[in-house]
Design brief:
Distance between the termini of chain A: 20 Å
Order of helices and strands of chain A: HEHHEHHHHHHHHHHHHH
Largest interface: A-B, 83 and 86 residues
Number of helices of chain A: 16
Oligomer: homotrimer
Radius of gyration of chain A: 23 Å
Strand content of chain A: under 5%
Largest sheet of chain A: 2 strands, parallel
Number of strands of chain A: 2
Chain lengths: 468, 468, 468
């Protein structure tokens, strides 16, 4: 087994950094975090009837959100973790750092997102904040995909910490201030995570990243990766719909299901077309089959009809395979943009497609095709406070006053959110890349690239059963 | 690595066929498919109260069906996909074609099943139709198991397309017209899928199929297969109960749970008995442990009592291991029936057992042991319209008028449905096999059998860590 | 491939034992087991309205418990099964015997737990008893972890059968008689299972157990194990909260989520610190990341606040890594305690930590921080029957009379339950170890240790693609 390179230079740093952050998290949780009313034994609603666990247990929001939360949880930890195990000698790092990063980020994201939504100076947690913390982890894991095998775990932790700050602010601005619709987080999670990671990768780029024989798969590593792919694919309807209510949620499930089905079929069709001898390429099957879930994520709860979702899936699958085949090599050779997992093809471009599809769907949304459901999907479309229009609605429907936006205005805000997301992601990603160049953060030597051997106790291979 | 054989003959065909079908699906979805009322923003019930997502979000049928739908979804894509990865060099094809076929079929089954249940000329989709589309995919994947490694992906797509037509008609006749009870689809899914695939396999049979050294497993491929096995086993209670209401669903869960537990124990017992030196055989553990889920599928919602479910599990496990040990080799040598995954032992014979168990249970079902629940399990048992018997029931219970069937009549219909299912499956499977012999559909050469190498970009093995 | 050793001595024994037990289970199920009222078609509540499946399907307890039941089911069969596949040549045994043992135990535990909670002489089953049967299986699988690779399947079955008897009695005494709070079963499942298995291991100990070259992992076996780890980690909130009502359940989910997150980060920090060259050790990542779920299990539903849960996670992760690094080797060399999976570090010590944390939390629980929810978490804290204190509560809240325990008394009972659990586990584990020494039960020869080859048909390795 190869000698590890300069192990001493990193002695104790990962431990030190993790311990410091964990202590900070503990202190901040101690000061700021408390149970939400659904999980606080003392809350009045939980002191009514014993047999039902306080209030009616069926009414606890846990019952509504938990099954989908667990689907998303599987996507984060199994899905992203195993999707990246395709590299032949980086399986420990893929699933291991994915695990570490996500467990780190869900704590930090609870705090950052909580600070932006304080209740009387406190952060109230519950299944909904667990969901949004998991979404935040997804963004960091997407960025990780762009850098897989090329940065140290120390650099990853710093990247995750910084990214969550910008991620939370961007989402707060886009979803909160601009009232953009993005139910599946295709802009705020996928576009942000992809271009943040790509920007950092570009800044950190080294010649040694290219051409390593270790940057490839073996037969069984490709099968491990398919565990990740299939779990992501199956549970993506939960990702895109978890936070939507009632019929909106149901619609988001349906649209994502059909977008993914058509995307999968399209990926096989295009992969066979672009590959040598019409063979299928596991890189496409592992990744591009999922692009439909990203691309339908912004408009999943809109009235795009199942056929509309399928068109989005077809375009996304095609775009993604074309990305792997031609755009990634082009960006690598011309722009020196190295993207280990091809996150530009799975999350970046399909995320931009999602934003555009969302803007188009928003531009055609009226009460004629949405009923009053229009104001659930686009709260800013609701009439202004004290307007006659609002009073008419309130006769039949409970709705908060909005900004009286037109369909065209809403579509414009959707595109503005995309531009802002791209800008914040790229600029903050580049700055983070610069930060990660600080020598103390242990950049990898060429020998350490794409290889578990230098950071993990790797077992000696068993040779007993290999016949020669 | 071996040269691929005659790649040019298949240039572009898979792409062409998938593109054509995907366009047809898109057009038909555009014309016929719309959201069901639970997912249509404009539906009146969704325009009442904003805070709950239109109507009370808890009342949306998504909440009732979605957790079990996702369990079934995992069975289809992870369960069937990984169960078939046991072959040493066909892992990509197993999990990959499973993925493609299922994504293809869920679109086509939405249409076919929808055409048989039109609402005012439209197909309304929702979580329930997603469930039945996934069930339809299961039938095709079972047929795939009989043909694994022996047909091209092009042939598989054609097979899936044709099979869904006959599958949907058979189920419509059996469940709709004959009002047969088959809550877990043991007849309409398992028996149909198995004998359709076996009939096609018999027609396509070639001498070269037998005796290939590639038709076997390696150590880690057997572990990948166990991922499929265990997910199928765990979620089978959801498969057998997803579409049943209330106490029927609860009962189907319990019966399937115990049938599977006793089947698993029995499989180990019988496998150790029939194997050389009392060793356990992974083929049995991977497959026969699941036979109890199939065999209890028809009567899972009936009042068979937990001990009854366990008896079914014991018989099914025994039958299945005996099938792998003696019946499959016999059929191969005497009838030239080659069954790669042994679907006759996991789905075929246990499905027939299910039908018989269902008929026996139906023959003993009366209001004395079911209460009025009898008419939920067997709607045709309800008294005729305007009969005195019906009026008496309607005093306490809401029930539609039925056909006034006796227990014996219902049992007879159960057996008739089995016979019809077998007949349609075998005849349509043979016709499909003939269709797949058309030269343009790329039958495999002997070198291409059980081998990913000819249709997939297979990575070079890494030799770096193998010491000699 | 190595010759198997003395295969004849075990001819037919496994089959015979499994058949006998399965018949006993069938007979006892036939006599005692019936559907609970939620799943009995005849029950009055299920004869009201057809459309809803008897009573309102949404009210069936299946809907409340089933999603979490399935999460726990995945933990038992995938989680424990794959966690143990880390051994290089014992993957079939790990996932296979796990499967067999669990399927065996869930039947036997249904009976044993049912006998202790008879309804008019009958055992009523449903989703709640399925949950508690799965919990019982967890205890046996933990014991299996201590003995992995060192005992025959015959010995495992006997061990499982005996363990469930003592397990059920201990839980009945601790949870029922002493009214100890242990929502996640950290004492009754984890402490019991770990020390039962360790006691048996100590009694069975042989010199040959140590120093085998087969007692280690290979690269891909460590990845298979991570499938188990991550599924256990993700679904642990369901394990700790499944049986709690309403806000208690929600709180248990939150506390477990954060305890696991901080435990994961801590495990990486401490693993890097204690390992040679600061490398990460897969043994720690696979196991110690989960210790937080065990350690928070007793107090998960108490008002410990998220920061309290995180502190428990930090302590548990540290304790567990220290256990793997120093305590296990110490116990092996000084006490000849061989613990293949290190269950003392994952279940034993973290379970004791859970009991202590639970006692501390119980000692500080008052209505000032719990409201009347206090009596949900600690039913024995409720005032005595006919007391003025009880009457006051009953004005606002439905609660059964309790024992009027103070916080200190409850804390004392928590510790008493720990001591009793330890005592029963160790004594019954040692007795079981002695029982397993009976020659007829096939103790393993040194050649058979940690090796599938002697009990499974192991495929010849494929050498076709290994280049030399």
């Amino acid at each position: 087994m190869a000698q590890t390179v300069e192990p001493k230079r990193r002695r104790g740093k990962l431990t030190l950094v993790l311990v410091i952050f964990q202590i900070i998290f503990l202190v901040l949780f101690g000061i700021f975090v408390e149970y939400g009313e659904d999980s606080d034994a003392k809350a009045e609603q939980n002191n009514l009837e014993h047999g039902n666990g306080g209030a009616d247990a069926m009414d606890n929001r846990l019952g509504y959100y938990y099954p989908m939360f667990q689907d998303v949880h599987v996507m984060i930890f199994i899905g992203f973790g195993f999707l990246m195990t395709f590299l032949k000698r980086y399986g420990f790092g893929s699933v291991g750092y994915n695990f570490l990063l996500a467990a780190f980020v869900i704590q930090w994201a609870t705090l950052m997102q909580g600070f932006l939504h304080l209740h009387h100076g406190k952060i109230q947690v519950g299944v909904e904040t667990m969901l949004t913390s998991d979404f935040a982890a997804a963004a960091v894991l997407i960025s990780f995909g762009a850098l897989l095998g090329k940065v140290s775990h120390l650099q990853l932790i710093i990247l995750g910490f910084v990214e969550i700050i910008f991620f939370s602010v961007n989402e707060y601005v886009g979803a909160g201030y601009f009232q953009t619709a993005d139910v599946g987080g295709s802009m705020f999670v996928h576009v942000f995570g992809a271009y943040f990671g790509l920007a950092a990768s570009r800044v950190l780029n080294k010649k040694s990243w290219e051409g390593s024989s270790k940057e490839g798969s073996v037969y069984h590593s490709d099968l491990f990766a398919m565990i990740g792919t299939v779990f992501l694919w199956m549970f993506w309807p939960s990702f895109n719909s978890a936070l939507a209510p009632g019929d909106d949620q149901h619609r988001a499930v349906i649209n994502t299901y059909y977008a993914l089905a058509s995307c999968c079929v399209t990926t096989f069709a295009v992969s066979a077309m672009v590959s040598k001898e019409n063979k299928l390429d596991m890189v496409h099957i592992q990744n591009s089959t999922l692009a439909g879930g990203v691309a339908v994520g912004t408009c999943a709860n809109m009235m795009i009809q199942p056929w509309g979702a399928m068109v989005i899936g077809v375009v996304a699958g095609t775009l993604s395979v074309v990305g792997y085949k031609w755009i990634s090599p082009f960006l690598l050779s011309k722009v020196h943009l190295h993207d280990t997992c091809g996150v530009n093809n799975l999350h970046g471009m399909p995320g931009i497609l999602a934003a555009i599809a969302g803007a188009i769907a928003a531009a055609t949304a009226e009460t004629s095709n949405y009923g009053y459901g229009l104001y659930e999907v686009f709260p800013a479309r609701a009439p202004l406070v004290n307007s006659t229009a609002l009073d008419t609605i309130l006769d039949d429907f409970t709705v908060d006053a909005g900004s009286g936006r037109t369909a065209g205005m809403q579509a414009g805000f959707q595109l503005v959110a995309l531009v802002i997301t791209l800008a914040i992601a790229i600029i903050s990603g580049m700055l983070t890349g610069l930060l990660l160049k600080i020598p103390i953060l242990d950049q990898l030597t060429p020998d350490e690239l794409y290889d578990d051997n230098n950071f993990w106790e790797v077992p000696e291979e068993d040779t007993h059963y290999v016949k020669v």
